[in-house]
Specification:
The chain folds into three domains: 97 residues, Rossmann fold; 64 residues, 2-Layer Sandwich (Dna Ligase, domain 1); 149 residues, D-amino Acid Aminotransferase, Chain A, domain 1 (2-Layer Sandwich), CATH 3.30.470.20. The longest helix has 17 residues. The chain is built from eleven helices and 13 strands. It is of the alpha+beta class. The N terminus is likely disordered. Helices cover 30% and strands 18% of the residues. The radius of gyration is 20 Å and the shape is globular. Bound molecules: adenosine-5'-triphosphate and magnesium ion. Magnesium ion binds next to strand 13.
Length: 370
């Protein structure tokens, strides 16, 4: 098994023309949506919405195998440590969302670090913090990045802070894929707020994050790279001078969505182009000044949280038209022709295979495999 190189500082090692080991044995780690499995009692109606389909795993495997590597899909469940010990991968392509608890997206990275196995993308701390939208926003606010005023409720009885003016928006602090976000998430008065906060706390068994409702346009902004990315990339021409590639910005026009104005669980689950789906516009039609601002904020949001190689940052405009960061996804969905990041890549002619191999190579280079 390779020994991990734990730092990604530029200039730490010379570019190598001969990979240390090639081809690689790559384990693709994911949690799979399985509608046929019985659901445990008391799980929310949209539980497991962030899990992947087996088709996504197969698409990732096909991309990796097309470069000559061997792959195996391993489900990220409680047998994962044993399966990893048996397979002995050189690297894991990680898209696992984890099983539960307060930092489920960090569970697999933590296990891989414990076992000394290289893996793609962000490491433990970033995945743990990014799952928690409140902690993420506290860090961004501390670094003067623009976020809407917010407050976390753990009991539902906390007095509302005076800076939070209605309408407000209520969501589970630690979910993704629009879970717990529907038309009722927007609340207009104290009674609706209390009802919704209690619903979120009870249903999702976690704190509720309450923030100012942002009435403006919604964007999601993706990026790949790091300062030394060009050295290890299969496509050095993708990268700007700072080593990052900025994908074209995707705008979600949520007006036609099942939940108008809100890109929640149901809107996300509706097939693109079907009734009730938002309109996906990529590249978004933007004043160059606003586009620059969105790209700048997304990259700052990524760097401040210590994200690695790839992320997608969700941003909405406030009543004054100013961008406010909503959240960061260091494990963005990678369903071909469907996930936001894949739509962005496709919009500029980047093939799915190249996107997947780039994530793999950037990860591999951080762990000394390239
Ligand atoms: N403060 C807000 N004001 C208005 N709408 C909001 C606000 N916060 C969230 N939303 C809406 O709810 C959606 C889901 O919120 P958010 O992106 O925070 O959660 P998520 O479920 O983790 O998303 P993802 O699927 O990207 O992981 C947003 O895309 C947006 O449409
Ligand atoms: Mg989001």
């Amino acid at each position: 098994m390779s020994s991990p190189i734990l730092s990604s500082e530029e200039g730490e090692k010379p570019p190598s023309s001969h990979p240390r080991k090639w081809p690689w044995r790559v384990a693709v780690l994911a949690n799979i949506k399985d509608e046929s499995k019985p659901r445990p009692p008391n799980v929310p109606p949209d539980a497991y919405a962030d899990y992947d389909s087996i088709e996504t795993v197969h698409a990732i495997q096909a991309a990796i195998e097309s470069e000559g590597h061997e792959t195996r899909f391993i489900e990220a469940n409680r047998d994962l440590p044993f399966a990893l010990r048996e397979y002995q991968p050189d690297i894991c392509f990680n898209i696992a969302e984890g099983l539960g608890g307060d930092a489920r997206e960090a569970q697999v990275p933590a296990l891989l670090e414990l076992m000394g196995i290289p893996y793609t993308g962000s490491r433990v701390l970033t995945n743990a913090i990014a799952l928690d939208k409140t902690l993420t926003k506290r860090i961004w606010r501390d670094r003067r990045l623009p976020v809407a005023p917010f407050q976390e409720f753990t009991t539902g009885d906390e007095p509302l802070r005076p800076e939070l003016k209605f309408p407000l928006f209520v969501k589970p602090a630690r979910e993704g894929t629009g879970m717990g976000v529907d038309a009722e998430a927007r609340v207009n008065n104290e009674a609706e707020l209390r009802r919704r906060v209690r619903y979120v706390i009870q249903t999702y068994q976690q704190p509720a994050l309450v923030e100012t409702y942002l009435p403006g346009r919604e964007f999601t902004v993706g990026q790949i790279g790091r300062p030394d990315a060009r050295r290890y990339s299969r496509h050095p021409e993708w990268y700007d001078a700072d080593g990052f590639h900025r994908f074209p910005i995707l705008e979600l026009n949520t007006t036609p969505a099942v939940t108008p104005g809100i890109y929640g669980h149901e809107a996300k689950a509706t097939a693109i182009g079907a009734p009730g789906a938002p309109e996906y516009i990529c590249p978004a039609l933007l004043e160059p000044e606003l586009a620059r601002k969105l790209h700048h904020l997304a990259l700052r949001a990524h760097l401040v949280l210590g994200a690695l190689d790839i992320s997608r940052v969700d941003i909405r405009l406030d009543a004054e038209g100013q961008p406010r960061l909503l959240e960061i996804n260091p494990l963005p969905g990678l369903a071909p022709n469907y996930s936001d990041l894949c739509l962005m890549a496709a919009a500029e002619g980047i093939a799915y295979r190249d996107l997947i191999l780039e994530i793999l190579h950037l990860g591999a280079s951080r762990w000394g495999l390239l």
